[in-house]
Amino acid sequence: MTWKNRHTWIAGLGIIILTNALALAGLAYNRSGEPDARVMLSERELKLPYYWGRKRENSGLALTLNWRMNSASDNKSYYSSRYSPAPWLNQAKLALLGFPVEEATGHAENRRRLNHSLPREAFLVLEFNGPAYQAELTRQQMLSKQQQALADRNPGNQKLAKAAKDSQERLQHEQYKASRLFVIDVGLDAQVLRQHYPDSARYIVQRGSIRARVNKQDDQQWVVQGFVSEIAITRVNIPLQYRSAFEPFMIDDAGKQARDPNYQVTLAYGQRLEPWVVRVESGK
């Protein structure tokens, strides 16, 4: 090995050691002190990878955070999508985040500037099994009731009968399968948000990003809308000691699953608002 190659190798090794040391220090700091949040989620909010059990050569397992958005109050759609505008992201909140929303609807140049603005980093509040989920459940109950009443008034109408059946199935999905984890608020100060949402067993403060757009509505009016672009951390690694709790839910080579997923995972969010697993319980 030449002098140059030897020193290059030593420098590379030093960078690796330093990087690992910084990562371990960050991990230790995140888990120091009292967690900012400690929330028990289920298979509804933490999803197994679709290939779990097929790629047996890879023993790693990470669950994906399944978060949602509430529908707007005037939304008659059967589905609520995380890609829809956030009804709570009003113009005042977007201005607080630094978006040029003032007079954004008045002129084409203002609309263009806002629509081409980059997402802004912020802190997001996620609520588990709270008023946001109850509002969505109530909405599905109302839609199902309306659809069933319409079918009852038109006996023999197969199209309406099928629509009522589909609506009932959507309601059951909402009751027993759909995620109960909703993004409900945004801000620039994590501590201020925690003061507003002190229940650390229900509310998670997470880093994320927001984007703003001006869109034309059905009434031809321009409206400023805000969207959640992303949540910073949506994958949660499962430590090796908890891996066996998920083995009953593996998919075999034929693509079949012996049991429907049924588990609870308690996550702690630390000083850096990063999660780690502290407990896993598998349903019977």
TrEMBL record:
InterPro entries: DUF4824
Region of interest (Disordered), residue spans: 149-169
Source superkingdom: Bacteria
Protein name according to UniProt: Uncharacterized protein DUF4824
Organism for this UniProt entry: Thiogranum longum
